[in-house]
Amino acid sequence: MNDANGVDGANGVDGAIDVNAVNDAPAGTEGYGEAAEQLAVQYESVSFAEVHRELRHLYPTPPAAVLDVGAGTGRDAAALAALGHRVVAAEPTPELRAIGERLHAAAGIRWVADALPGLPRLTAARERYDLVLLTAVWMHLAPSERPPAMDALAALLAPGGRLALTLRHGPVPPGRRMFDLPPEHTVDLAAARGLQLLHRSTRPDLHGRDGVHWTSLVLERPR
Question: In a 3-state reduction of DSSP, which class is residue 49?
Answer without folding.
Answer: helix
